Amino acid sequence: MTQSNAILAPAAAEHEDAAPRSLRPLYRCEAKGPRLMLWHPYGFEWNHVRLPIPHLPRELDGLRILHLSDFHLRKTWSPPLDRLLARIQADPPDLLLATGDFAENKRTYRPALPHVLRLIDSFRARLGIFGITGNHDAPGLCDHFPAPA
Fold this sequence. Notes:
Blueprint: E1 5-8, E2 26-31, E3 46-50, E4 65-68, H1 79-90, E5 95-99, H2 113-122, E6 128-132
Parallel strand pairs: 4-5, 5-6
Antiparallel strand pairs: 1-2, 2-3
């Protein structure tokens, strides 16, 4: 299931403001998800990026951030979500960022609500979990999200 390839992200050498070779992000795609998923997720794409940041405080060196997006949940739960959550729980990131489109239906989130809450309740991160709703998430959805601790 895992495909592994590592590349250096391209930087335009002819530009004066191009990052020095040692500061280019390192990108690795561990597993590519399906190109098109209709109705339910069939898998997830895992990309690892090591992003060198000049003058980053030493205590932030190695900070691991997991970005999740576009779940488009419906009224049924999909088994690949269990695999996603198991992987997160087995090796929690430092920060988890969830950026929108928790629900598919733009008019009502109600059919997906139990699954959205199950998903969010299963997230784990050492320093915190942060999220924002997206254009598919009907008004009021975030009123059901857990209050910050």
